[in-house]
């Protein structure tokens, strides 16, 4: 049961966040809250040591502070900041967090480039009637929750919680 919950909750929450961000340019607070609460509920039963739990909290806190700064500078949306910090909680404060953040940055760069290219052709795309969400064609912001979700799923196999809950990655 623990393994199933650990394997399911993280990707499911990220998928919900990505779809919501794509369709509405918002990430519901309940998704980030579900990620954080689920981690805190699963971690003690997964065999993760208390010291590791503290490192997970430290990593998420650092990511949250950096994201808060980006939000204050109007570089990042609030939903993206909360989602990134809640997802970071699952990676701790070691190389898996760095892996996660690198994936998010790389996918985010590709996503931003593709959306800018799409928006440069928005009038043509709308004229031929392609059914694309407004977030891709006319919004001023980038639905970065998509990049966070893809990066999170790519890095998830290295999550210390997943490794602890499943026993190993064999």
Number of helices: 9
Question: What is the number of domains?
Answer: 1
Q: What is the strand tally?
A: 0
State the helical fraction: over 70%
Separation of the first and last Cα atoms: 19 Å
Q: What is the overall silhouette?
A: elongated
Q: Whole-number average pLDDT?
A: 92
The helix-and-strand class reads mainly alpha
Largest sheet: none
Share in β-strands: under 5%
Radius of gyration over alpha carbons? 17 Å
Q: From the structure provided, what is the oligomeric state, counting identical versus distinct chains?
A: single chain
Q: What is the N-to-C order of secondary-structure elements (H for helix, E for strand)?
A: HHHHHHHHH
Low-pLDDT runs: none
Description:
The protein has 170 residues and is mostly helical. It has one domain (2-166). Helices cover 76% and strands 0% of the residues. It has nine helices and no strands. It has helices at residues 2-24, 29-46, 50-72, 78-88, 95-120, 122-128, 134-137, 145-155, 160-166. Helix 1 (2-24) packs antiparallel against helix 8. The model has no long low-confidence stretch (mean pLDDT 92).
């Amino acid at each position: 049961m623990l393994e199933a919950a650990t394997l399911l909750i993280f990707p499911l929450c990220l998928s919900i966040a990505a779809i919501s961000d794509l369709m509405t340019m918002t990430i519901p607070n309940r998704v980030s809250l579900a990620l954080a609460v689920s981690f805190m509920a699963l971690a003690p039963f997964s065999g993760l040591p208390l010291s590791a739990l503290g490192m997970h909290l430290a990593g998420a806190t650092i990511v949250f502070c950096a994201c808060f700064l980006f939000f204050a500078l109007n570089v990042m949306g609030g939903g993206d900041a909360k989602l990134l910090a809640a997802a970071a909680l699952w990676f701790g404060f070691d190389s898996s967090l760095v892996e996660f953040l690198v994936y998010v940055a790389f996918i985010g760069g590709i996503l931003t480039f593709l959306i800018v290219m799409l928006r440069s052709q928005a009038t043509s795309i709308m004229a031929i009637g392609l059914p694309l969400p407004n977030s891709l064609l006319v919004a001023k912001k980038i639905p970065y929750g998509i990049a966070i979700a893809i990066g999170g799923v790519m890095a998830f196999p290295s999550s210390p919680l997943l490794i602890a809950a499943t026993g190993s990655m064999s």
